[in-house]
Design a protein that fits this description.
It contains eleven helices and nine strands. The chain is α/β, with parallel strands linked by helices. It has a nine-stranded mixed β-sheet, with helices on both faces. α5 packs across α6. The N and C termini lie far apart (87 Å). The model has no long low-confidence stretch (mean pLDDT 92).
Length: 345
């Protein structure tokens, strides 16, 4: 090969490696600045779901009977310290004096969107119908909004949830809420919060790690329902790492301490509340949680259609319980479990 050809090949190789370096640098930049991707998702979602942090309610406050006979109070402000600090309360009937347990629900949405009013933009099911059906089973249902990225990050929503618990206890008589029989439930991002709140309330070391002084006492929480929570960060797909990493620090590259603070499976102990685990897209995480709860001796039930029926179900599938038999079975088992922890419901 003559010298001219060698020089040409060298130039081509240099250009090729420069292009590769630029591409790699661009990818690395995006993965260390994940809000670039999440911000685009927020803009695309903004016309149909809440993606903002607001100090005013999303809708007009209302109080009265719904068409299904349930009684609702909406847009109750529970804190002055954070935006999106509003909650709705739904009672099974107009008899608000009835003795019912309180089920507190946190919506999903990847910590970038969603709301108590319209649910999770990442789930392909009707979360609001699910909540109506849970309420109809004899629970006073409190549906809570919380802060979103990019202005707020982990553990801000947990600090805010703790403020909501304080408000609910301070106003329990006004709103006819039994705060000594509490069930906490969340789906997707809300399931992450629920799983972590279970440890915040029952494990002082974990609460201290997050800088939270729990308002609820362990004996007040009768059960938690963790609906498809991604928890085991090191096992996530790239897409999930982008959403969760963005929530934690704005990058997919979490250090060991950050992963340990986020993944409360590592903090489960024998004081953790009785739990229902619903696994579909994140069945691996729910199986890891199941193992931790089993080893800790915690009463719980794992509902895993892939293991039980060899069926892959959509993310947070239980919300399709009105139209899907597998989801309806999961709903019935979930309700049976939390009622078993609340005798007399």
């Amino acid at each position: 090969m003559n010298e001219k050809k060698k020089k040409t090949i060298r130039k081509i190789l240099i250009i090729f490696f420069i292009i590769l370096a630029v591409l790699a640098g661009g990818i690395l930049f995006v993965l260390t600045h994940t809000q670039i991707i999440v911000g685009m998702i927020q803009k695309l979602s903004a016309s149909t779901v809440n993606t903002a942090n607001l100090y005013e309610p999303l809708g007009e406050p209302m109080e009265g009977l719904k068409d299904n006979g349930q009684y609702v109070i909406t847009e109750v402000k529970y804190s002055e310290n954070y935006p999106n600090s509003y909650l709705d309360i739904t009672y099974p009937s107009k008899d608000r004096d009835a003795s019912n347990p309180t089920l507190i629900y946190f919506h999903g949405g990847g910590f970038f969107g969603g709301s108590k009013s319209v649910g999770d933009p990442l789930a392909e099911s009707d979360a609001t119908a699910l909540l109506d059906d849970i309420c109809a089973e004899g629970f006073n249902l409190v549906n809570i909004d919380y802060v979103l990225v990019p202005e707020y990050h982990f553990p801000d929503p947990l600090v805010q949830a703790n403020e909501a618990f304080r408000f609910l206890m301070d106003h329990s008589e006004e709103y006819h809420l039994d705060m000594n029989r509490v069930v906490i439930m969340g789906s997707s991002a809300g399931a992450i919060m629920t799983s972590q709140l279970g440890s915040v309330v029952t494990n002082p070391e974990y609460a201290d790690t997050l800088g939270i002084t729990p308002e609820l006492k362990p004996e007040q929480i009768k059960a938690v329902v963790i609906d498809d929570a991604p928890l085991a960060y090191n096992k996530f797909s790239l897409g999930t790492k982008i959403l969760v990493g963005n929530y934690v620090k704005g990058s997919i590259f979490l250090n060991r301490e950050e992963v340990n603070r986020y993944n409360n499976i590592l903090w489960v102990d024998s004081n953790y509340p009785p739990a229902v685990l619903l696994g579909s897209e994140y069945y691996v995480d729910m199986r890891d949680m199941d193992k931790a709860l089993t080893e800790a001796g915690v009463v719980h039930e794992l509902i895993d259609p892939l293991a039980e029926r060899n069926m892959e179900m959509q993310h947070c599938f239980v919300a399709s319980e009105r139209v899907n038999d597998v989801a309806r079975d999961a709903f019935n088992r979930m309700i049976a479990f939390i009622k078993s922890q609340n005798p007399g419901v």
